[in-house]
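Quick check before the chapter quiz. The format below is the same one you will see on the exam, so make sure you can read both the input and the output lines.
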Amino acid sequence: MIDDYRSLAVFVAIADTGSLSAAGRRLKLSTSVISHHLSRLEERQGVTLFFRSTRSMSLTPEGQIALEPARRMVAAGEEALDAIHAGNDEPVGALHIAMPAFGEQSRLHQEVWNFAKAHPMVAISLKCSDAPTDLVKDGFDLAIRLGTLRSSSLKSRRIADFERRLVASPDYLNSRPGIETPESLAEHDFIAVTQIPPNMTLERNGQSVSFEPTNMRVEVNTVNAAKAAVLAGLGLWHVPLGEIEQDLADGRLVHVLPKWALPALGIYAVWPDIGPQKALTRRLINHLVENRSKLML
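Here is the expected output.
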């Protein structure tokens, strides 16, 4: 019976992630072990749970019938483990977290390290990337995301805000027409970041101006690369303030249109809606919320 329970947990992971390899990453098991558990479960029950192809796996009618009861079993097991540790002052377990690639020295990252230092029995696996991450398929308990969240099946909580500054290098500004008003921006080059919409809103004294750059001279796929392009004098971009405070202080970058502000954006904790939230995930989110004043990027 224990083998059946273990195999059912593997079955749920495959159904949630869509492949044997993704289920293996989620459960920290090799693909061959995942395949073995699935095959044994199908053999013992005398059914086929997935239609298999070279590109995907989809549930058979028998698999669809079994999925929700199996998912409840896994959720109940996780709830039981959470209950065991709920009364402990010292949390125990592992967290798989996704965060943006930039800002490794930021206070946001530092608070994750503070949480890890405060709880030595918690193992932290952290992936830093500016590319979109599939939390379910890749087995993440939690992601930190910035800006405006897109509609999805994920759950989220706003844990803090961050400010941005529209900036350029002195060399760029000295070689181009002056920027006195938001309308002047139309004459200038901008840096494009693949996954971030180019449009922006500038605000001053209750007045709001929307602007969408058309001269996108350079396109990059990370915030760090965008900052480097701005420093190289290739155009303007709106960068999180925490990433450029020292550059502004040292004169390597200039705040463009300082009388106009970009609206503050959110820092969100995001997690999959595939069962009860892990107590350890809740504890980390609560830690970040309690220290939200330190998280400004």
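If your answer matched, good. The chain has nine helices and 14 strands.
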